[in-house]
Amino acid sequence: MASLTASVDEVSAAQERKSAALNDLVTKAITKRHKDAIVNIEGFAPTDYISTGLPGVDHIIGAPGIPCGRLTTIVGKYASGKSTLGYSIMAQAQKREAIVLLIETEDAVDHARLQILGVDANKLLIANPASVEMAIDNMLDAIAALREANPDVLMLVVWDSVAATPVEGEIDEDTEKIAVAGHARVISRGLRKLIPAIHKHRTALVFINQWREKVGGPAFANNKVMLANAPIGFASSLMLEVVQVAKLKEKPGADIRPHGVELEVAVIKNKLAAPFGEASVHLLFDTGFDIGQSWLDLGLAQGVVKKAGSYITLPGYAEKMQRERAKQTLLEDAELQELIRRGD
């Protein structure tokens, strides 16, 4: 029996030596012409993440946030909360002393709104390019300049929004003469430069885009499409869809003005973990995202937090709590937050 085991080990060792020799042969053949063509697989993995600021959304992403070195796309209909989610990510990046560049082409950025969501406007870099071509050049130039000056600093670039940015042909020519898929062609060419740049320089890139309806599509089909749908969808490692599902009111009544909205964030593409997760988040007009509610929803989904009627029981706390007190406790208890993240 011992001799049989030794024989198997010898065969396995010989196969490993043969495989290593062949790998070395192929590596030398490729690097002879292109020095840096062969890389370690670990070089493709995201080296860092930037939180969305919403525990439930980070959970469905399956990572501590959006990946650095990759493209994340946030898409939805108008007034769905896309830009607001982008601002939340910007605030989290600033908390980590990151350089944040906002490519603003909607001409609608608001200082008060940024402040509510925790963004320090005085530290925010804002570019206002006139075209898609200029926006892509701005991003490439900014990434290259920053990495040359400080290669270790964290960087986030947010483009708000792709759908609002014209191509140069729209500015210079009669719009009736613009070629079909003109945006898609320009963005596709730009992405072929941007994706290697953000990977090399470990920059988190976020595109904010808008769903549009296909004209003449069958009523029973999914007719949603975003600008430059194919190239952006192909290049994105993570795609988040934001949908407004309800208005939040202090009490029922048609004459009661809403104080916020409930949003549903869904992962529609994910190269980091399993896709198709969904998370509910509350956006309050006066104070921003309700982070306590996000912790509570995640805790209930994970089975860590228990709810009976209107009372909530948190692990480690003997007394039952009403919703608002439970949310405040969750915001203040870091150990409980870690417990919810792990799902223990």
Folded structure, characterized:
Helices cover 41% and strands 22% of the residues. By secondary structure, it is an alpha/beta fold. The protein folds into 2 domains: 41-289, 3-Layer(aba) Sandwich (Rossmann fold), CATH 3.40.50.300; 291-344, Rec A Protein, domain 2. Strands 3, 4, 5, 6, 7, 8, 9, 10, 11 and 12 form a 10-stranded mixed sheet that branches. The chain has a two-stranded antiparallel ribbon with strand order 1-2. Strand 4, helix 4 (111-116) and strand 5 (125-127) form a beta-alpha-beta unit. Helix 2 (55-61) packs across helix 9 (291-302), helix 5 runs parallel beside helix 7 and helix 7 (182-201) packs parallel to helix 8. It is globular.
Question: How are the elements arranged and paired?
Answer:
Layout: H1 2-33, E1 49-50, H2 55-61, E2 66-67, E3 71-76, H3 82-95, E4 99-104, H4 111-116, E5 125-127, H5 132-149, E6 155-160, H6 168-172, H7 182-201, E7 203-213, E8 224-226, H8 229-235, E9 238-248, E10 260-270, E11 278-284, E12 288-289, H9 291-302, E13 306-308, E14 311-313, H10 323-332, H11 334-342
Parallel strand pairs: 3-7, 3-9, 4-5, 4-6, 6-7
Antiparallel strand pairs: 1-2, 7-8, 9-10, 10-11, 11-12, 13-14
Helix pairs in contact: 2-9, 5-7, 7-8, 9-10
